Amino acid sequence: MNRRSFIERSALLMAGLFSLPAIRNQAHTIRKKAGIESKEFVFAAICSAGRFEQLKELLKPSSGIRLVRYSPARAIRRKVSAAWIERGYRQRQKHIIRLLTAGIPVLAEAPYNEGISAFDTLQKTASSVTVPAGIAHYHRFLPACFSARELLLSGRIGKISSVQVQINQPENDPLLPFSPNLPEAPLLVILNLMQWLLSQPLLAIRISRKETAVPASAISSGIIMGAMEDFPVRIATTPDFYDKNGAWSILFIGEKGQIRLGANNLLEIIDASGRWQNLSKEDPNKASLSVRMCFEDFALAVKEGRQPEGKTTDMLPDSLLLNGIHQSLQSGKGELLVELPFGKAIRL
Amino acid sequence: MNIEKEILGRAVEVVFQRTARKDCMPQTLANDLFLESLLYCSSAFGRPAYQEYVLSTISGREKQGTVRFSRKQFYTCLPYNLWISTGEEKYLEGLVRFAAELRDSIGRDKDGAVVAPDDGRKCRISVLVLQGYATCMARTGAITGDTGWFDEAVNQFGIYRKVLRNEQTGLWHHGRGWADDPLFLSPGYWNQAQAWCLRGISEVLDCFPPSYPGYEKMVSMLHETALSLLPFQGKDGMWHQLTNAPDSYPETGGTALLAFYLLKGVKKKWLPEQPFTDAALKAVTAVLKYLNRDGSVSNVSYFTDPLRTEEGYRHLPAFSGDTQGAAYFLMACSAPFLPS
C-alpha cells in the first residue's frame, strides 16, 4: 500500500465513521470499551502495599495519570492503559513477559537476571509484541543527570581521560541472607547511568578484593577496574552495613576540567577557572520529580505510539555486567563485556 | 505529504541541535557521516543553515591542517558530497591523486579483495572497506571520465559478492579473515553490514553513466540485495540487530540507512517503486519512534569491525546519543524529500 492509497483509505474510513450514526455509535462503544475515551492514563501497579501508597502520593501532581492496584490480566486489559511492576526482582521478568503477551504496555523496574539468556528471552518477547515495554531508569530524569549529560556532550571538560565511580554498596545481613533485593543492583544502576551519560558501553571489567575490618562480600568492598573505548573507569565500592543510604558519585576527568555528579542532585564542575562550581539547584522534590517524569514519559510514549526513554535494550549492559562481575570474581581476571574484533585488546 | 515533511523537519532540527553541540572537528567516520547527512537535510528541507554548519566545520579543519583525504578515514568521502552540494571544484583537489595512491598501495587478499588498511596479514576484508574503497574509485572515474576506475569498483564488488553473500538468504556477512583462520567468515548477518553494503552499491552506481557496461550488473546487484532484505523487515518497519533473527533487538541505525538507500534506489529508477517505497517509508516511520525528547536516537548498535561470534553481534549494546546514530537518523528523514 503506497502513501496515497493509505491516505485515501484513511480518509474514507474516517468519513464513514463520523457520518453514519450507526457506525458512529459502534465506534463510540469500541472506544469506551478500550478506555480510549478516558483522558486519564491508568497504571495498574504490581508492587508492595507500602510502595503503592508512596507512589500514589508521588504521582498526585501528575494530571492525567492514575495508579490503581493490579487485578488479573483478563480483567484489566480494557480498563487500564499500562501496568507498572516493581515487586521482587526475580519475578519482574516473568510478570513483564506475561503482561506484554496479553497486549498490555508495561513499565517495570529493572528485571535483573543471572544469565544473559534471560535478557534474550525478554528481548524476544519485547520484539514480538506491538505494545511498548519500558524500563524505569529514574536517574535519567534527575535534573543533575541530564545537565551532566549536556555538559559532557558539549565537551565542556574536553576529551575524557578517565572516570572514577564511588558507591556505597548495601551489605546483606548474614543472618538474613535471602534479601529481596539484588546485592549488585545499586552498582548496576550507577554504571548503567554512567554509560548512558557517555553514550558508550563499558567494554571490560576486573574485580580486585579489598580487605576490610568487618567481613564483607567482594562486590561491596573492592575496586573494579573498567574500560571504555578510550579511557579507564575506576569503581570503588564501600560496604554499607547500616545506613543503606545509597550514596554514590561519578567523577569525570577531562583534559579541560572535571565534572562530579552524585546522589541528592549533586552536580559540580571545575573548568578553566580552576574552582569547583556547584551547579545543583536546590529542589526538595527532585527525587519525586524524576519518578513522576519517568511515568509521564512512558504514558506519553504509549499515547504517541513511540518508544519510551528506557527500553528493554537498556537491560543488555546490565546483564553483561552482572555476568562479567560473577566471571571475574571466579577467575580473578579481567572479563570482556562486549566482544572485540580480532586483534583489538583492552588492558585492565 | 506536507504534514509528514513538517514532522520530519522538526525531528531533524531537534537531532541537529543536539548533535551539533558536540565537537565535530575530528575527522572520524561518525563525524563525517553526520556532516554528510546534514548536506542531504539541507537540500531536502531547504535549510541552508545545515550546509553552512558543514562548511564552517570543514573550514575549521583546514585551518587546523587536517588533510582532506586520508587512508585512516576513507569510508565516507565528504569533499565529494561538498562538491555536489556547492558546485565548488576546490573540494575535489587531491582526490584523483589520493585514489591512485589508495588503489596502488592497499593490500589485497588471495582472491584480490581489498583488505583493511592496517592489515599486515592481508586477509581481513569487510563490507565497510569495500563500500569506502569502491565508492572512492567510482567517484574518481566520474571526475576523470576514465572507466578503468569504474572497472576497479565493479570488480571489487564482484569478488566480495562471491565471498560474503549467502546464496540462500541473499544477506551479506560482515567480513572475512577477522580470526586466526584467514578464511573465517564473520557469523550472522549484522544489520548495519547490510546497510553499508547497500550504500556502497548505490554510491558506486550513482557515478556510472547508463551506457557503462558494468551499470546493469550493479543495478542487478542492488536489486537482489534490496529484495533479499524485505522478508526480514518487521511488521513495525524495523530491521533487527541480526537481520535474519527477529528475536534480536530492533536496530535503528541499519534500518535508517536501509530506508535512505532504498528510497534513493527508487528515485534513481534503479529499483521499482513497489515494494521498495512502502518498505522504506515504513522504516522511516518506525525509526521516528526511537527519537528521544532530548534529540538523541536510541537502539543504534555499537559500531564494530567484524566479530567472531553471532552472540557478539546480538549482545552489542545500544546506547542513545552517539553521533553516528544521529547521522543515520538524519539520512532517513531526508530521504523522502531529496530531489531525484
Shape of chain A: globular
The overall pLDDT of chain B, averaged over residues, is: 95
- Total strands of chain B: 2
Spans of chain B with pLDDT under 50 lasting ≥5 residues? none
Order of SSEs of chain B: HHHHHEHHEHHHHHH
Q: What is the 3D form of chain B? A: globular
What is the CATH architecture descriptor of chain B?
Answer: Alpha/alpha barrel
Compact overview of the structure:
The complex is a heterodimer of chains A (348) and B (340). With 348 residues, chain A is α/β, with parallel strands linked by helices.
Describe the structure.
The complex is a heterodimer of chains A (348) and B (340). With 348 residues, chain A is of the alpha/beta class. Chain A folds into 2 domains: 3-138, NAD(P)-binding Rossmann-like Domain (Rossmann fold); 140-281 and 312-336, Dihydrodipicolinate Reductase, domain 2 (2-Layer Sandwich), CATH 3.30.360. Chain A has helices at residues 3-19, 21-34, 49-58, 73-76, 89-101, 116-128, 143-153, 185-198, 286-304, 315-331; strands at 41-46, 65-69, 82-85, 106-108, 133-135, 160-170, 204-209, 222-227, 232-240, 248-254, 258-262, 266-270, 276-278, 335-336. Chain A is globular. Chain A starts with a helix and ends in a 12-residue tail after the last strand. Chain B has 340 residues and is mainly α. Chain B contains 13 helices and 2 strands. A two-stranded antiparallel sheet of chain B has the order 1-2. In chain B, helix 1 (2-19) packs antiparallel against helix 13 (323-334) and helix 10 (252-267) runs antiparallel to helix 11 (273-288). Chain B is globular, with a radius of gyration of 19 Å. The two termini of chain B are 17 Å apart. At the A-B interface, helix 6, helix 7, helix 8 and helix 10 of A face helix 11 and helix 12 of B.
